[in-house]
Amino acid sequence: MPIGRLRQRGNKPFGDELPEQVPLVGGQLRLSVNAFAIDDGNEIILIDTGASNAWHPTMGRLPEALDEAGIDVGRVRAVCLTHTHLDHIHGLVLADSRDAFPRLARLLVPREELGLFRAEARLERFHGMAEPFEAGDRIGTHVDIVDAHGHEVGHSCFRVSSGGERILIWGDTVHVPSLQFDRPEVTWEFDADQDQARESRLRLLALAADDHYFVAGAHLDSPGIGRVVRSDASFRFEPL
C-alpha cells in the first residue's frame, strides 16, 4: 500500500528519507492484511474481513484463507470490526457480490463509526444489521472490548480470554512492525488523530508486555500473532 507520511513526536515528518528498517517494494509499503477467527467449538466470531475487491487485488483472499484453515463460512455467525477502513470491512461482500457469510447473525461496529459504516454504499445490505459496541462491552463469554481510539475515531481492540491465556486482537495499533515496536511514538498520516493513536499504541504495548498477552495485528507479518516484550526504553515483537 502507499507508504503515506510517517511522523515523529510533535508530528514532525521524516521527509523523503525513511528509516532504513522500513522495507519498500517498488516504493510501496508491503504489509500483511490479516483477519482473525475466534472458534468456541460451535460458532466463529470473525474479527475484520479484509478488503475483498475494494482495493489492491492481493487484499481479497479471506475466502481462500478460511478454506485453508478448515473453517466453513457457514459457521461465521458474528463479525466484529476493529474500525471501518475499507481493508477491514469490504470482505463482507465477495468479489461476485454475494454475501461472504450466508449465516451471519450479528455485525458489530464501533459506536462512533456507525455513520462511517453506513456511508459505504457497497455494504448497504448490511446497514440495518450493524449494531454498536463500545469499550467495556462483552461479546459472549470470552471476549471484551478495549478502547484503542486514534487510528480512527472508534478504533477498538478485542481481548479474548480462555484457558488462562489472553490475546489482544488490536487492529491497526501497529502499521509498520519493522519500525513502530522500536519507535512506538512514530505515527503516519492515515491515523485520524495522530496524538491519540500514539497514546493508544504506547498504552496497549505496555499492557501486552506487562500482562503477558499474545497480540494479533491486522498489519503484522503473517500470521500476525506473537508477544510483545520490553526492550530497553521501547518494545520488541516476538512472532509466534
TrEMBL record:
Alphabetized InterPro entries for the sequence: MBL_superfamily_lactonases (IPR051013), Metallo-B-lactamas (IPR001279), RibonucZ/Hydroxyglut_hydro (IPR036866)
Keyword Cell membrane set for record: no
Keyword Repeat listed: no
Superkingdom of origin organism: Bacteria
Keywords: Hydrolase, Metal-binding, Zinc
Residue ranges of every copy of the Metallo-beta-lactamase domain listed in the record: 32-219
Pfam families: Lactamase_B
PANTHER family: QUORUM-QUENCHING LACTONASE YTNP-RELATED (PTHR42978:SF6), QUORUM-QUENCHING LACTONASE YTNP-RELATED-RELATED (PTHR42978)
Family of this protein: Belongs to the metallo-beta-lactamase superfamily.
Protein's UniProt name: MBL fold metallo-hydrolase
Organism whose genome encodes this protein: Mesorhizobium cantuariense
